[in-house]
Amino acid sequence: MGAGALSDAAVAPLTVTDPVLARVLETKLASGERLAVLVDDAALAHEDPTSESVGVLSAVHQALRTPDQHLQILIRPPQRVRVEDLVRTEPHVVVRIEAMSDDDDLTEETHAVGRTLAQQFDRWSDLQPQIPGESRVHAQQLARRPGPLSDFVTASLDLDDSQRQSLLSQRAVRLWLDLLLPILEHELQMLEMGEKIQQQVRRELGQGQREHFLREQMKAIQKELTGAEDTDVDSLHERVARARLSDEARSEAERELARLDQMQAGSAEASVVRSYVETLVELPWQRRARERLDVQRTRNVLDRDHEKTRARQRTYSGIRGGPKTGWRSGSCTGFVLRGASGRGQDFTGPEYCPFSGSKGPASVPWWCA
Asked: Of the chain's two ends, which shows fewer C-beta atoms within 10 Å, N or C?
């Protein structure tokens, strides 16, 4: 019988699928014999199975036939054993065994490692909802018995058969503890990391849901007070959709609108974002005006409207209107300075540019200061 998944402190069901072995078990149980040795199949297949075969001596408490004619038995493995001799293999395996004592190397250091294992198992159980409270109590009761504690923890962890068999095969309890403690520590770290991630997700979702709920409440209250819903943000969405923005400008406007949807309506930040989006919408992205690039006319207008004009203002107009370069710039907003330098009134264009003949909002490339 294979027993790689069992440990000698576990009570577990076992399904026997071999029909010959199932009949042997039923015969033995009918005669009152209830002890069976559970050994890993791979160990018995070894050239010298007695050198590798460590299993458990198990008491069979119950046997029941399943609808598919397999035999379901309930076993309690009370003691680890080592196979000393393979007596026969037909019609079923018969072996000579030797009991393995767990008390041969129980030094103070071994007891200390056992208590550490019990503490780690208690922390591990806290993060496992499916682990009953009785298991934690039982582990604490076994804290002073490193051997049975190792059995119990091994049976509780979700290990594959090879890992369980490797732990079960350790001749000394201290070696068993030294192998088991890092495995439990790794499982504990994985559970703690998963719990931390879940808490962070719950916290973020909870905060988002709370903000959404409060915003909906504010909208409902405002509707009750004013008799109408606040449509400022909706109107701004519509204006952005209708505006002939460039791809980059539209992406920026939509990003800011998404932020605005998450903000409290009366906050200072919401006011800034709203003004920014309104400015983006109002800019003349697709409108152009016809320019008149006349250096002499620019000089006359500046001499008339702006005393002691700096030379660079005329130079720019000359560069723009030069027949050799044919240079055209991108859109830009300029400042028109009226009056003496440093004493006049400044205003942002392009509302009116007397140099180029542009009137009204336009995205033509021009520069006035």
From this structure: C
- Structural domain that includes position 262: 232-282
> How far apart are the C-alpha atoms of 161 and 147, rounded to whole Å?
19
DSSP state of 337: E
Domain boundary among 99, 120, 151: 99
Domain boundary among 182, 212, 228: 228
Would residue 5 count as lying in a domain?
no
Total-model pTM: 0.44
What size, in residues, is the chain? Answer: 369
What distance in Å separates the CA atoms of residue 112 and residue 117, rounded to the nearest whole number? 9
73: helix, strand or coil: strand
Structure confidence at residue 46 (pLDDT) = 56
C-alpha separations of 107 from 110, 127, 153, 177 in Å: 5, 31, 20, 13
Q: Cis omega (within 30 of 0) on the bond before 350?
A: yes
Written as one string, the DSSP assignment of 200-221 is HHHHHHHHHHHHHHHHHHHHHH
Output the domain CATH number for residue 67.
2.30.130.40
DSSP state at residue 308 = T
Q: In 3D, which of 178, 182, 177, 167 has the Cα closest to residue 8?
A: 167
User: Do 75 and 60 contact (CB within 8 A), yes or no?
Assistant: yes
- Residues 6 or more apart whose CB falls under 8 angstroms from that of 289 comprise 356, 357, 358, 359, 360, 362, 364
142 Cβ neighbours under 8 A, 6+ residues apart: 9, 118, 148, 149, 152
Total count of domains within the chain = 4
- Classify residue 136 by burial, with Cβ atoms within 10 Å: 0-12, 13-18, 19+: middle
- Segments of 221-269 assigned E as strands: none
**In this structure, is residue 366 part of a structural domain?**
no
Residues of the chain under the 70 pLDDT cut:
1-12, 40-52, 77-78, 101-105, 171, 222-223, 225-231, 265, 289, 306-369
| Residue 84, domain member (yes or no) | yes
The pLDDT, as a whole number, for residue 170 is 75
> Backbone phi, then psi, for 323, in 5-degree steps?
-70, -20
Identify the bridge partners of residue 212 per DSSP, sorted by sequence position: none
Q: CATH code at 114?
A: 1.20.58.1480
